[in-house]
From TrEMBL:
Protein name (record): GNAT family N-acetyltransferase
Pfam families: Acetyltransf_1 (PF00583)
InterPro entries membership: Acyl_CoA_acyltransferase, Bact_Acetyltransf, GNAT_dom
GO MF terms held by the record: acyltransferase activity, transferring groups other than amino-acyl groups
PROSITE patterns hit by this protein: GNAT
Natural source organism: Microbispora triticiradicis
Region feature Disordered, mapped onto this chain: 1-44
SUPFAM superfamilies for the chain: Acyl-CoA N-acyltransferases (Nat)
CDD domains: NAT_SF
Acyltransferase in keyword set: yes
N-acetyltransferase domain residues: 68-209
Keyword flag Transferase: yes
UniProt keyword terms in alphabetical order: Acyltransferase, Transferase
Amino acid sequence: MGSSCTGSRLRRRTRGQQMIATRHGRSPCGRSEPPGEAGSRIEEGHRFTRMNAVVVRRLGGEDWRTWRDLRLAALADAPGIFHGDLAEERAYDEARWRTWTEDGVKVAAFDAGVPVGVAAGRTPAERTGAVELFGMWVRPEARGGRIAERLALEVVAWAREAGRSQVELWVICGNDSAERVYRRLGFERTGAYEVHPHDPGLRKYVMTRGTLDSPVRPLPR
Ligand SMILES: CC(C)(COP(=O)(O)OP(=O)(O)OC[C@H]1O[C@@H](n2cnc3c(N)ncnc32)[C@H](O)[C@@H]1OP(=O)(O)O)[C@@H](O)C(=O)NCCC(=O)NCCS
């Protein structure tokens, strides 16, 4: 199953300088880079001390700016990871962001009130019983604090409350740090692969877990 990833190739990006490695490469995605214009508004003057208690909560329609700013910062930081297009989404108006915020679930992490991470869940019409977790991103300055685990578990909780039995997500081949996060939470590869819709040089694979599975398990080293 893992060998299916080896067709992907090391690629360098100009915007955000995101680097995605193959299974044989050395760099996972998520390299620390200055955020784009949308993100700089969020982080200005903020220091990530790790001493602040990080709060994770679901967003409502009134939080559309938070979803917008985190989403645009994510696309600027890691353009090869997400399906969205930064220029296209930057052009969305308020009504569109509000509607998107309220569609499915958007979960954000706040460090002393400053948004530092985000994840989203949606119920694909074609997949009854499943929720797709997407858009997972933690600000480079806030990484390493297990924030992603809390974001993912909140999406799983939302899926369970919505009566869904499975949560699925896509990982780009070579994004090993993301896979480790998900494996710690009990997600496993299904063996399904697809070519990235915007980049035929990249492949992605599905991971899934049940919404009633135990929350966290230790990662085998
Ligand atoms: C993947 C991602 C969400 C993980 O978020 P996180 O809250 O930092 O997750 P963790 O704290 O569990 O750390 C994950 C790994 O990154 C390592 N890490 C620590 N500090 C880091 C830093 N400053 N920068 C990058 N990685 C760091 C951790 O040690 C950990 O490694 P391990 O799994 O071997 O223990 C985050 O790196 C990110 O936003 N990446 C770019 C977007 C992305 O890949 N999204 C996932 C799409 S499927």
